[in-house]
Design brief:
about 160 residues; Glutaredoxin; alpha/beta; seven-stranded mixed beta sheet; about 40% helix; single chain; 5 helices
């Protein structure tokens, strides 16, 4: 009997460990103006936040951000969402970021992870990679890659957060 209780207690502790909330790790990012900010600040806005990791050389990344751009105003109005597009371009290609953003007309907050500090800390292996943060900064949804229609799934996840 005592052994059974020990096993049950161990299982409960294991389950409790898996249910811990996941937040963005501490890592430095740069704005397009060269200012430094910590990634953890992104989850402290009180808004639902979409974090999209992308690169100028990544066609699926640009397709995803273009698709969201078409409905982003509605997301802002209906859900109060903020999208932060974090470029993972390195020192050789980062100079292309402002031009791509301007040409595409993206109205997102653009940040740079040129040193890959956040990408490494968050274990981002490839782009596009998307995090959805709730109003408290908890990561509640993650998605790798892009296929047309993925933005609809993301909107469903956002809508669930609004209903809570």
């Amino acid at each position: 009997m005592k052994r059974t209780l020990v096993v049950i207690a161990g299982l409960l502790l294991s389950i409790a460990g898996y249910s811990q909330t996941k937040t963005l790790p501490s890592a430095n990012l740069k704005t397009l103006e060269g200012q430094t900010l910590n990634a953890q600040e992104l989850g402290k806005t009180g808004k639902i936040t979409v974090i999209s990791f992308w690169a100028t050389w990544c066609s699926p990344c640009k397709k995803e951000l273009d698709a969201i751009s078409e409905i982003y105003e509605d997301w802002q109005k209906n859900y109060g969402v903020e999208l932060v597009a974090i470029s993972t371009d390195d020192a050789r290609t980062v100079a292309k970021v402002p031009g791509v953003v301007s040409t595409k007309g993206w109205k997102y907050r653009i940040l740079l992870d040129t040193a890959k500090e956040l990408s490494i800390a968050a274990n981002i292996q490839s782009v596009p990679y998307t995090f959805l943060l709730d109003q408290n900064g908890n990561i509640v949804f993650e998605h790798i890659g892009y296929a047309p229609g993925d933005e609809d799934e993301l909107e469903e996840q956002i809508a669930k957060l609004v209903k809570k």
